[in-house]
């Protein structure tokens, strides 16, 4: 495995990334991987990612998707994970060493200025497009980094859709308030909160053949505490911006008890709550 490249050439991270880079956020990314990897695997299989391929993982974070992809492409394949944050890349490189994934290489790069020398069989990204201001430019850059007939597969939490799902059922007061806070926080920070609709539009402006789309969401009925920890963890990471935007104070959020309060609310009403709904979209380069 190569080390992390280009580190010295990049400036410090902008402070506007919605979830920040705390140790707790790195742990949350790991929990998120446990919750989402089964959906990611299905998506990547549907997109045709298989043994021996070279795959680019966009916004690899601490490496959860890169590790999954490494298993799918096998020892004859190769995965390149890119992210702009050095701390996440170090954790990813450490994980790859521990798992013995010698076919992964991590590089530091900004996805808004994607310019790699290499072309890939497939390009994957999870929870990354929501942070990219110009999706048409992003998809064009992705297209330019694919071999002819190569595949892109993106999997993104749609915060507006998730808020809508919470309202469709019983609209549990705390759960509905929580999903509303989170959607507004990402929206005010300039992220795409209707990423499904925004990606469909962006795909229509680029050279990919008819994209396919589906949605995955896991529901919790109050028993499984780590699912509620995941929801609370997201609020913990976003808490500085939630306060800065005047959306929720630390007292309202009470992040240390948020998971248990959400779980208790769901259990007390024999109800359920959907965790973040993932929009999954994949297409072939023409
Ligand atoms: C929510 S994490 C997702 C990590 C990983 N894809 C996963 O699913 O576990 C988003 C990652 O995208 C990275 N990121 C956000 N904007 C970026 C950009 N413009 N260029 C490169 N990385 C970016 C962040 O540094 C962070 O590590």
Summary of the model, kept short:
The chain is of the alpha/beta class and 286 residues long.
Task: Please give a structural write-up.
It is a single chain. The protein is an alpha/beta fold and 286 residues long. It has a single domain, classed as Vaccinia Virus protein VP39 (Rossmann fold), CATH 3.40.50. The chain is built from ten helices and nine strands. The site of S-adenosylmethionine has 21 residues, from helix 1 and helix 2.
Q: Which parts are unreliable, with pLDDT below 50 for 5 consecutive residues or more?
A: 1-15
From the spread of the alpha carbons, the general shape counts as globular
Our count of helices gives 10
Largest sheet: 7 strands, mixed
State the CATH architecture: 3-Layer(aba) Sandwich
CATH fold annotation:
Rossmann fold
Strand neighbour order, sheet with most strands: 3-2-1-4-5-9-6
CATH class: Alpha Beta
DSSP E strands, number: 9
Specify the helix fraction band. Answer: 40-55%
CATH superfamily: Vaccinia Virus protein VP39
Portion in beta strands: 15-25%
**Secondary-structure element sequence?**
HEHEHEEHEHHHEEHHHEE
- Calculate the mean pLDDT score and round it: 93
The first-to-last residue Cα distance is: 32 Å
Q: Over all CA atoms, what is the radius of gyration? A: 19 Å
